Description:
Radius of gyration: 19 Å
Distance between the termini: 46 Å
Bound molecules: S-adenosylmethionine
Number of helices: 9
Structural class: alpha/beta
Helix content: 25-40%
Order of helices and strands: HHEHEEEHEHHHEEHHEE
Strand content: 15-25%
CATH architecture of the domain at 8-147 and 204-230 and 282-288: 3-Layer(aba) Sandwich
Mean pLDDT: 86
Amino acid sequence: xxxxxxxxxxxxxxxxxxxxxxxxxxxxxxxxxxxxxxxxxxxxxxxxxxxxxxxxxxxxxxxxxxxxxxxxxxxxxxxxxxxxxxxxxxxxxxxxxxxxxxxxxxxxxxxxxxxxxxxxxxxxxxxxxxxxxxxxxxxxxxxxxxxxxxxxxxxxxxxxxxxxxxxxxxxxxxxxxxxxxxxxxxxxxxxxxxxxxxxxxxxxxxxxxxxxxxxxxxxxxxxxxxxxxxxxxxxxxxxxxxxxxxxxxxxxxxxxxxxxxxxxxxxxxxxxxxxxxxxxxxxxxxxxxxx
Length: 291
Ligand SMILES: C[S@@+](CC[C@H](N)C(=O)[O-])C[C@H]1O[C@@H](n2cnc3c(N)ncnc32)[C@H](O)[C@@H]1O
């Protein structure tokens, strides 16, 4: 499972998996609009120096490079840069870099952004301290991570498969929070347990998002805020969840909590055209380094 760069980093996803690029593109498709909206609101503009950490397939890094123009600069880092492509943007530098161990310039960037990265690191507070240290006084740190546990929803996912017959306003109806159509409840619950066990074993903290506002305050940032923008996906074009489950399949099976058929059942459900799915909520949180 995996190749050297990401095995050494402890990253739970196997970046050498043949469909990992597609999985990252699917993630961008769901979450980029929220990121772009928030970064625009914070004022990213001509001349800014930006750091995009754990840039994955690089869409936000390229978007930032266009916003900051020729007078600005974007450094996009990742422990494995194979999917990051600058698409000819001369103000975008892509660099292999492990946030846990490799140096960053001190008090340099106007903006530091990391999406779905901090939750994967064993020492999340230290990672945030490093990012705050790399930000210039007056600059912004923007962190996004999944926040599902903080939203009062049982189980790993927040998939609401949009089948009629439950009362979303009735708090005693478990289906109001977490619903699968008949026949899928047991596989989905087993899958939820397997995901929790696999992530726990890899020291991934899927609830990191809800702790971000406090964590950003704790590293000395001010003007801290946070938001969630859930998307609603329809089956058939919801590629992120099926690809994520396929990528994690060996780790999920190794937990002993789930069968291959359970995983395939849930994948089939998410891909069905009759399915409506609310993917896991990404919390976007920001804070400013005091001047
Ligand atoms: C779930 S992907 C998110 C990619 C991108 N930020 C996005 O949201 O589209 C997490 C990324 O973090 C990278 N990563 C994992 N551990 C890292 C580390 N220690 N230092 C830097 N990047 C890391 C992975 O290689 C991967 O590209």
